[in-house]
Amino acid sequence: MMKTSRKALASSLVMLLVALYLLTGCSSSEGATSKKTGKWAGQTLTVQMIGTFKMQDSTDPITGQKVKGLNTLKEEFEKQHPGATLKIVTMPWDGYIQKTKTMVTGNQADVYQMPGLDSGYAREGDLEPLQPFIDKDHFDLNKYVDNQVEGWETIGPDGKKRIYGLPVFGDTRFILYDKKVFKDWGVKDLSAHPTMNEILEKAKQMTGKNPKTGKQNYGVYFSGKSPEWLIVNAAEAQNGSWGSGQKFDEMKFNFDSPEMLKGLNWLLDLSKYAPKGITSDQGSEKWLTKDNNIAIMLNQGPGSLISKINSQGLQKRIGIAQEFNNDEGKGGLFAGSPFVMAKNSKHKDLAWEWIKFSSTDFFQKYLWEEYNSIPVIKDAKKWKSIKDESQFMNPIFDALSTPWTPHYPWVNGEPRLELESQVQGALTGKISPKAALENVEQKSNEWAKQQLNNQ
Hints:
Signal peptide: 1-31
Distance between the termini: 92 Å
CATH architecture of the largest domain: 3-Layer(aba) Sandwich
Keywords: Signal
Largest sheet: 5 strands, mixed
Number of helices: 16
Organism: Pullulanibacillus camelliae
Structural class: alpha+beta
CATH superfamily of the largest domain: Periplasmic binding protein-like II
Radius of gyration: 27 Å
Pfam families: SBP_bac_1
Mean pLDDT: 92
Number of domains: 2
Protein name: ABC transporter substrate-binding protein
Helix content: 40-55%
CATH class of the largest domain: Alpha Beta
């Protein structure tokens, strides 16, 4: 009996192993042949993405929660496009400009994440205009948050403004403030749309020894390393602007305008109520902690903001207000990243499919819930994960829809660097505000002429 049972057991195990082998073999075979069949058979699409992305699942260092890897997008895209293979090339923000240029020059990808769309790629003919694809598919651009598509329009090699990229990663700027500090000083919370004077007066009122805690408070903080956006936005608050034109032969700069000068003087006045380390980005180390000593934070971005607020239990303490808008409700830096299609891509139809895929709820919700990337589609407002954070996300969506568009055409060129440098000089007392802005105006005009001559 024992021998018979052992033989029967052995026979059963052999049959089971054979069955498993055949099953595995069939599955592998089907997996291999699936790339050889289907509408997109044999096509490999290469996509470049910038940031802290990982292909495999990982752990968020702030929340300790599991973060789904980019394989989530890869699997879904390949499932929706039978026969296609998706290859995602990731790179960190550090050095991304040169790395992207190397990839574009070497025709190494079909689709690029390109925050610096105005840096010349479209003008030089490296990118494919998207309007023909949009028209062919009757693709509805109204699905995007207002102003997001317009922000990425840029000049092509024919000198005409076209859509070369569609928004994917939302970004914007706003003002944050600490309600507890305001309450300690008996100062009313910021308005939803504060004026330059309101910011200045309230910053002045809340600088000194906190009447409740006895500790030193500062009324305001801003980045002294990147103050250029504050000056431009202050001009917009007065119905001024940086200038006009996107073509180099049509650009007119207003950096030495009365509005810019008033904005710079306003910033110098504000600096009296900020920590001394602002020019080296020091002095805000306690921000978003329970020991915070700063009342107002200017020119803030989303990033991992909500995660930090939640992890510190500061939901009821942090308030949010809008940057300055002109009388038309427009103002502030347009930021973020679009996807663009390489002119030399051999898989343009599949590349377009990826760009469309990036506008879906699946893609946008993945970026939001896994990487805190602000969605660029209107339907995101319906998601539970967005509604749960409505205190911050509603104002952020408002800010996302009102920036100055199109994208400042000089943002990736010499004018930005010159404006940054000259404003820093004024903040440190090395140059007068008037002379600083005159220098920016002169350098910007020279830059535009040089760019025109280089075409």
